[in-house]
Design a protein that fits this description.
The chain is 78% helix and 0% strand. It contains six helices and no strands.
């Protein structure tokens, strides 16, 4: 909800300033930076899963892969989404992550809250 209300303000401001349809369409697309962060997290999440399920892997391998995945997720949480497309893409992705029970660290919430101010 927090992301959605911020996006509505951005969208209405763009419309009120008289920018054309092209600007509105651009505003609704997620930025390349956010898309890259999401793809990086998907990659590190998959790598973490492979390490955990790999026969003969050690706990230090699990810890390192988990930390790498956590940093990638924190980067998304901390991303300052301003455009409507960024707000929606960030919220949708984080809701998917949360549904798996993985948006559970205090650092996640702190980063999310900081990204909104």
């Amino acid at each position: 909800m927090l992301f959605h209300s911020g996006c509505a303000v951005v969208a209405s401001t763009v419309a009120a300033n008289g920018h054309g349809t092209k600007a509105l369409r651009r505003n609704r697309q997620p930025s390349e930076d956010l898309v890259a962060l999401i793809e990086a997290h998907k990659t590190t999440y998959a790598a973490f899963g492979k390490v955990v399920h790999k026969r003969g892997s050690h706990s230090r391998d699990h810890i390192e892969a988990g930390r790498t995945e956590e940093r990638a997720l924190l980067a998304i949480c901390a991303y300052r989404a301003v455009k409507e497309g960024d707000c929606l893409a960030k919220a949708r992705y984080l809701l998917e992550v949360e549904a798996r029970g993985e948006l559970d660290l205090p650092e996640h919430m702190q980063a999310l809250l900081r990204s909104t101010v």
